[in-house]
User: Fold this.
Amino acid sequence: MKGSPYLPVFVGVALLISGVQSDVSCKGTDGRPGQDGASGRDGWPGVKGDKGEPGTLADGPVSSSVLQRMKGEKGSRGEQGDLGPKGYQGDLGSPGLPGRPGLPGPDGKRVNRGQQSDQVGDQSAFSVIRNITTYPPFSQVVKDWVDVVNIPGHFKTNTGEFICDISGVYYFNFHSVARVSICLAIVSTVLDKQLVFCDYGNEQVLSGGVVLQLTAGDKVWLESFQDQQEANVIDNSQSKQIIFNGFLIFTAQ
Assistant:
């Protein structure tokens, strides 16, 4: 019997398959986990998103954090707190620049017998002159005066008297020039005695003065006084001149 020509091939294939099955059945051990890798780099910034819709509060209690973020209506002003302690006095600063002049104040008004008067300020002054050649009658008020100054008219030329309207301190004086002996007296309701001034002879120049404190209604005047003079002097008709002055020094409170 002749042998088959394909027999060696079959034997070889069978041995090959047997060897492969033997390798598959042999299992190896599990491997160990590897180490973590290094951190990756940050990514590029993303695109800005669209604006969201306004938020709404759901019904129910609201958390305090939400209320703090919401702006409420302005409340009423609280009561003033207690005054704090006084601080230390600071250093004196440098002088400031001069201020502008203030506006003029209103005109003052004087007191007229306890009431306000329409006259502005406290004014009272007079100067009167007598240029008549006749001798003034003895023990009578000297009259026939002509105003030189009379503000605001407290000297009465018709009676020859100064009538005080503003209480205060006044100064009165007179001067006379005559070609005959002459005596003049300053008389007032506030004086107990007359203030007599005399000069004798020819070409006489006589003067006298006094300071008086007057109240409203008091009077001051001049009188012609006979003091050791001859009676015929009253008939003298030579030139005679008398000037009588008075003014307010200051008002009395």
